[in-house]
Design a protein that fits this description.
The protein has 371 residues and is an all-beta fold. It has one helix and 25 strands. It has three domains: 13-152, Immunoglobulin-like (Sandwich), CATH 2.60.40.10; 155-259, Immunoglobulins (Immunoglobulin-like), CATH 2.60.40.10; 262-368, Immunoglobulin-like (Sandwich).
Length: 371
């Protein structure tokens, strides 16, 4: 929700009287700020916006700040109490109910940081936002500290980041990002400065006529992950220099989880509590499924018949279904009658034709209970 921008700084009446005094606030707590509005102006994506709202507990009792929340994800408040001795106490803004306590006469600083990259990624050119404080003040439990910020976004990046939930170490995944200079700008964009091993990028310029004889530019960035990525978590930022102004670069976060040749989801069969059915009551307990994906690029996998190895294997049935030829499979494990062990575990083993992965072992675990 957009808030109307005040004509100028909002000054609390007590500011005109000089330094805050506890004796004028009555018996209860009272939180007063010297100003409750700040205009950050226009911030570029590489800028860091920061402002301190300064206030005092002018009342005669302890003030409890119960919550402190910003209205948008681009703003992060940090609360600090400053005692009469000058020592600082930092508030726990992630906590609800007791973020910070302020004795009479103590100073409160709400240090607000604004990240233009987060704001620009939302596609909103400007924000009228606020930090909402919930306090123990009687009659006025909520207080808003308002701010206004504009974002100078020279390039719209869609999507703003590359996130890959899982990519195999021998798999190839291609992601595409569009970079469009805003307001008809025509500066150049260069490929990423440097890339991690196993990642390549190709940047192409597309031009088309616009209104009034102008030329509209669109850059298409194709990022290829793998094959050859090391297993683990890949987290980096692609930096693309631009001609917008000296030193300006477009930042595109890249995050990916690199797995082995076989991806299991979930990682095993959690059968839970199994009711031991019998011939008199053959109602089976529900089975569990595990999806198997073969990740190497350009290759397919053949699977044999699954077998159960481990506790209660005679009373468990495994079956296999091919979802996508040579690439995606589904394994079903069903409990049968006769399970008696209170706790049982083992593995479903599936032979393959891949010399590097001759078998797939999927663990299982369950509990038996009468009734």
């Amino acid at each position: 929700m957009r808030l109307p921008r005040p004509a100028g700084p909002i000054l609390s009446s007590f500011l005109l009287l000089g330094a805050p005094s506890c004796s004028k606030g009555g018996n209860g707590p009272r939180l007063e700020f010297e100003a409750t509005f700040h205009d950050f102006g226009t911030l570029a994506t590489e800028d860091k916006g920061a402002h301190v709202y300064r206030g005092w507990n002018t009342g005669g009792a302890e003030l409890v700040i119960r919550t402190a929340r910003a209205s948008c994800g681009c703003a992060v408040p940090d609360l600090v109490a400053i005692g009469k001795d000058g020592l600082e106490r930092r508030g726990a803004t992630e906590r609800t109910g007791d973020v910070l306590r302020l004795a009479p006469g103590e100073t409160l600083e709400v240090r607000l940081a604004v990240d233009p990259r987060v704001g620009a990624a939302s596609g909103v050119p400007e924000i009228h936002g606020n930090v909402l404080l919930e306090t123990s003040e009687v009659g006025r439990p909520y207080l808003r500290l308002e701010f206004h910020v504009r974002f100078d976004v020279p390039v719209n990046v869609t999507p703003p980041s590359i996130d890959v939930e899982a990519v195999g170490r021998r798999e190839r995944v291609v992601k595409e990002i569009l970079l469009v200079p805003t307001l008809g700008r025509t500066f150049d964009i260069s490929p990423p400065d440097s890339l991690p091993p196993g990642v390549t990028a190709d940047l192409r310029l597309e031009e088309r006529p616009g209104k009034g004889g102008a030329t509209l530019r669109t850059y298409r960035l194709r990022v290829t992950l793998g094959p050859g990525l090391p297993e683990g978590f890949l987290s980096t930022v692609l930096l693309l220099p631009t001609g917008y102004r000296e030193g300006h670069r477009i930042e595109i976060p890249l995050r990916a989880r690199v797995v082995g040749d076989l991806l299991l989801h979930p990682a095993g069969f959690e059968l839970g509590i199994v009711r031991p059915s019998s011939a008199d009551d053959p109602t089976p307990s529900p089975g569990r499924r595990v999806a198997v994906r073969y990740t190497p690029a350009g290759k397919t996998l053949r699977l044999g018949e699954p077998r159960v190895e481990g506790d209660e294997s005679a009373h468990l049935k495994a079956s296999l279904r091919e979802i996508e030829v040579g690439r995606r499979f589904e394994v079903l494990l069903e409990p049968g009658p006769g399970i008696a062990a209170p706790v049982f575990k083992g593995s479903v083993v599936i032979p393959t034709d891949d010399p590097e992965n001759p078998e797939i072992k999927i663990p299982y675990r369950g509990f038996a209970r009468e009734g």
